[in-house]
């Protein structure tokens, strides 16, 4: 089917929009200074929650900023400015920090909210395009957006300003996340659902352990190894030494490549020594990376000891709900 006809210059216009917004983000990055560091310190030092508030398009962006903070280990909530002045300011308490988003910094709703936060003793971080506004003057840290025309015909719709605000919120949240030492494992605990949550579960949740784990001793004949491999149906057998430590593995591929040598040989003659392994608390996402990097389909899950690795289970790539 032929593509629909478009007017000349449409593609270039779209590209120009994106390039212009990208330049605005570069200008924003270059403008960051002590107030950004002060804002980070305020969030890290707070004993309560982060209250993100805005109105209109700033409110939409503020809601996303609050969600990003909450998902990366910082207790945060969104407070709509219009609802705030009708009773919802009651969620604010001493120990909180407010992040107020307003391009003009002069909206009528802001004054009452600023007065309340001041009375309660809640310090304010401002994201605004007007560094001389009422909001800026009331804030302990002012993150002023560079003056940049809104992209698009007539420059009437909030575009560049909301892009910069969203990116600045990401910069704040990601910096706080790094400073807190928030890890992928922590992130996984906050995202148990969906494909993302599946990738961030520990491998012990899906491994085959106990009686389901195919194991044999290094001196056992390959006749018995084949029986064990067939019984457990994972296409692999772990080979252990006298101390019960994993010293190698035998896959069905190893078996096919060496079958002409006969099945009277011990497992140690067929095994691949020092196989790739993973710890029980490693994330499924980490295991998927190992599968991909080494082009393998099976990993033994082991507990490391001074004298060797004790096998706890087996993880097959098909066990991973987010296999890619």
Keywords:
single chain; 324 residues; alpha/beta; Rossmann fold; CBS-domain; 2 domains; 5-stranded parallel beta sheet; 4-stranded mixed beta sheet; elongated
Summarize the structure in words.
The chain folds into 2 domains: 10-182, Rossmann fold (3-Layer(aba) Sandwich), CATH 3.40.50; 203-319, CBS-domain (Roll), CATH 3.10.580.10. The chain is 42% helix and 19% strand. It has 13 helices and 13 strands. A 5-stranded parallel sheet has the order 2-1-3-4-5. Strands 6-13-12-11 form a 4-stranded mixed sheet, with no helix packed on it. A 4-stranded mixed sheet has the order 7-8-9-10. Helix 5 (108-120) links the parallel strand 3 and strand 4. The longest helix has 22 residues, at 10-31. The protein is elongated. The model has no long low-confidence stretch (mean pLDDT 89).
What name does the CATH topology of the largest domain carry?
Answer: Rossmann fold
Strand order of the largest sheet: 2-1-3-4-5
Calculate the terminal CA-CA distance, rounded to whole Å: 31 Å
Largest sheet: 5 strands, parallel
The number of distinct β-strands equals 13
Helix-strand category: alpha/beta
The count of domains is 2
CATH H-level superfamily of the largest domain? Glucose-6-phosphate isomerase like protein, domain 1
Number of H- or I-type helical stretches: 13
């Amino acid at each position: 089917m032929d593509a629909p006809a478009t007017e000349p210059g449409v593609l270039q216009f779209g590209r120009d929009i994106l390039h212009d917004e990208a330049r605005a983000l570069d200008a924003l990055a270059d403008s960051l200074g002590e107030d950004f560091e002060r804002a980070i310190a305020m969030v890290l030092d707070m004993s309560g929650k982060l209250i993100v508030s805005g109105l209109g398009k700033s409110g939409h962006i503020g809601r996303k900023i609050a969600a990003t903070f909450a998902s990366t280990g910082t207790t945060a909530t969104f407070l709509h400015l219009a609802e705030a002045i009708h009773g919802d300011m009651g969620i604010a308490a001493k120990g909180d920090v407010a992040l107020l988003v307003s391009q003009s910094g002069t909206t009528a709703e802001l004054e009452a909210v600023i007065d309340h936060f001041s009375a309660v003793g809640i310090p304010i971080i401002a994201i605004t395009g007007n560094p001389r506004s009422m909001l800026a003057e009331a804030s302990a840290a002012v993150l002023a957006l560079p003056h940049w025309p809104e992209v698009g015909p007539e420059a009437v719709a909030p575009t560049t300003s909301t892009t910069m605000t969203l990116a600045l919120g990401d910069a704040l949240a990601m910096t706080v996340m790094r400073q807190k030492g928030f890890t992928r494992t922590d992130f996984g605990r906050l995202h148990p659902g969906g494909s993302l949550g599946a990738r961030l579960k520990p491998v012990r949740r899906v491994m085959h352990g106990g009686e389901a784990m195919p194991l044999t001793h290094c001196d056992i004949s390959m006749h018995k190894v084949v029986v064990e491999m067939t019984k457990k149906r994972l296409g692999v057998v772990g080979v252990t030494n006298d101390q019960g430590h994993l010293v190698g593995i035998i896959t069905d591929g190893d078996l096919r490549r060496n079958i002409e040598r006969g099945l009277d040989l011990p497992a140690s003659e067929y095994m691949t020594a020092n196989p790739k392994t993973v710890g029980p608390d490693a994330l499924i996402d980490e295991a998927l990376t190992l599968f991909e990097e080494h082009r393998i389909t099976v990993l033994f899950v082991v507990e490391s000891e001074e004298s060797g690795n004790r096998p706890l289970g087996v993880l097959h790539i098909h066990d991973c709900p987010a296999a890619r």
